[in-house]
Specification:
By secondary structure, the protein is of the alpha/beta class. It is built from ten helices and 13 strands. Helix 1 crosses helix 5. The chain starts with a strand and ends in an 11-residue tail after the last helix. Bound molecules: threonylcarbamoyladenylate and magnesium ion.
């Protein structure tokens, strides 16, 4: 089911199939955004509630006018400066955009990914691809084709669908989401492009994500591995807690990648998956400082650590 044949991927999408695609942030689970039946299969495969909107991925900023009702100066500026790249803009949706893509909302999330394979595919396909992260709902996002196979291999249809392999995602956390339909614009999900970057580019105030990510459909307990995740402020605390917990019989490891935040982001979801694969009860993670991509890493770690009422709901 894993292939690097971009032509085959484009054929499958044209036939209404679902194709997991590599992007610079994480792998997406893509379908033709103009084909409601194909879009419906994304929700089924992911196990995602249908009122959670999907991001539409475009091959170039020139296609903005086909998906947005209006392109104001902020949208135009960000498209020129940040695309292709890890930024999703929420804009008023064009009347032709199906409400099943936007979860019934009047806005649509748009982004041009920066990945040679995604770029090749989007250009061959020639239209927008609706794609959420290619994980089961509530689980950790995939950053390799193998992660997608592990999560969805049993659900995808080998005769209709495909996992397009483009190597590991380099950014490792999902795109920054900025809502341009409010004044001032507001960051709803932290990513590699920070609120400070957006302020500089737009030369205007940009509101931060306050607390956990607020994009609709974002739940507090998200990005969750099966083991407990415990974020702490410094290495010494992490080691002390780990020693304590080990004496009470827990299988515990400490993860500290605070020396290089780009690498920390790049490895984050693979690290969480590895903790499960190793059968850990608990992963104690040293938090990076809250600046630049550190915001995005902290956000994902807090979500991974959010209390889940009972173990059975962890697959949610
Ligand atoms: O990096 C990314 O953004 C990846 C890659 C595949 O592009 N995609 C991704 O999609 O993370 P997803 O669906 O897992 O997360 C997108 C979030 C969801 O929480 C969704 O509710 C929110 O964005 N969102 C999308 N469109 C929206 C809209 N029109 N209004 C409010 N929230 C929206
Ligand atoms: Mg997701």
């Amino acid at each position: 089911m894993i292939s690097s044949d971009v032509g085959l991927a484009a054929d499958r999408l044209r036939a209404g199939g679902v194709v997991a695609i590599p992007t610079e942030t994480v792998y997406g689970l893509a379908a033709d955004a103009r084909n409601p039946a194909a879009v419906a299969r994304i929700f089924e495969i992911k196990g995602r509630p249908t009122d959670h909107p999907l991001i539409v991925h475009l091959g170039s900023a020139d296609e903005l006018v086909d998906w947005a009702a209006t392109v104001d100066s902020n949208a135009a500026r960000l498209a020129t400066t940040c695309w292709p790249g890890p930024l999703t803009m929420l804009v008023p949706k064009h009347p032709d955009v199906d409400l099943r893509v936007t979860g019934g909302r009047p806005t649509v999330g748009l982004r041009v990914p920066s990945h040679p394979v995604a770029d090749d595919l989007l250009r061959r396909f020639g239209s927008g691809l609706a794609a959420p992260s290619a994980n089961r709902f509530g689980k950790v996002s995939p950053t390799t084709a193998q992660h997608v196979l592990d999560d969805l291999g049993g659900i995808l249809d080998p005769d209709r669908d495909l996992i397009l392999d483009g190597g590991p995602s380099v950014v490792g956390v999902e795109s920054t989401i900025v809502d341009l339909t409010v004044d001032p614009p507001q960051v709803l999900r932290a990513g590699a492009i920070s609120a400070d970057d957006l302020r500089r580019i737009l030369a205007t105030e940009v509101a931060e994500a306050s607390g956990p990510s607020r994009a609709s459909g974002m739940l507090e307990s998200h990005y969750a591995p099966a083991c407990a995740v415990e974020p702490v402020d410094d290495r010494a605390t992490a080691e002390r807690l780990a020693a304590q917990r080990r004496t009470s019989g827990e299988r515990v490891e400490v993860l500290d990648r605070t020396d290089d935040l780009v690498i920390a982001a790049n490895h984050l979801f693979a690290d969480l998956r590895a903790a499960d694969a190793a059968g850990l009860d608990r992963l104690i993670v040293v938090l990076p400082p809250a600046s630049g991509i550190g915001h995005a890493i902290r956000d994902r770690l807090f979500k991974a650590s959010a209390t889940r009422p009972d173990p059975a709901s962890r697959d949610g």
